[in-house]
Design brief:
Elements lengths: L2 E5 L2 E9 L8 E5 L4 H14 L5 E4 L9 E3 L13 E2 L6 H4 L7 E7 L6 H11 L5 E6 L5 H11 L3 E7 L2 E5 L1
Parallel strand pairs: 4-5, 4-7, 5-6, 7-8
Antiparallel strand pairs: 1-2, 2-3, 8-10, 9-10
């Protein structure tokens, strides 16, 4: 359960906390942590206001300067990942408005870890028309074939299979 509270221009999302609280009440309210969408919107707005492009790094750990890193942080501790949106890449289409992302890329993704059909549907939704997507992997797996099929199905253009572990396309 949650509640909304207007505070000046902001609407705060509040969640209940239960148990012993000051004043002897059974339930108290605290400000909820931002949702993944709120975090991604805030990071994208900050980039745009600085005149920068919105670049999303799938599985990113900060290796691309000023990129929004979409990473569930299963391995890397999030304390040192800048601009982190802590979700799986399959939720990419929920994180940004349609046609709002300038570039999507990935580096060093472990093979066979993502549902590429879902990831690329989300990528196609959020990429601006004419925007590129570049995907690179560690090692080989079945990812290249699945990605190429999804690129074709979603009608990405200028699809390039640069190697078994590197692919590019344009929305």
């Amino acid at each position: 359960s949650q509640s909304l509270l207007r505070s000046g221009q902001d609407i705060l999302r509040l969640v209940p906390i239960t148990g012993p609280v000051p004043g002897g009440r059974e339930i108290a309210w605290t400000k909820a942590a931002p949702t993944a969408r709120e975090t991604s919107d805030s990071l994208a707005a900050r980039l745009r206001s600085a005149g920068q492009r919105v670049v999303v790094n799938i599985g990113g750990t900060g290796e691309v300067v000023n990129a929004i890193n979409v990473n569930p942080h299963l391995i890397a501790p999030d304390a040192w990942i800048p601009s982190l949106v802590r979700v799986h890449a399959e939720r990419l289409g929920e994180l940004f408005p349609p046609d709002s992302v300038d570039t999507i890329l990935s580096y060093r993704l472990p093979p066979n870890t993502l549902n590429w059909s879902v990831v690329l549907q989300g990528a196609h939704k959020v990429l601006k028309p004419g925007a590129p997507i570049t995907l690179r992997f560690q090692g080989a797996g079945n990812d290249a074939r699945a990605i190429l099929l999804s690129f074709q199905h979603l009608r990405f253009r200028h699809v390039k299979n640069l190697s078994a572990s590197e692919l590019e396309a344009i929305k």
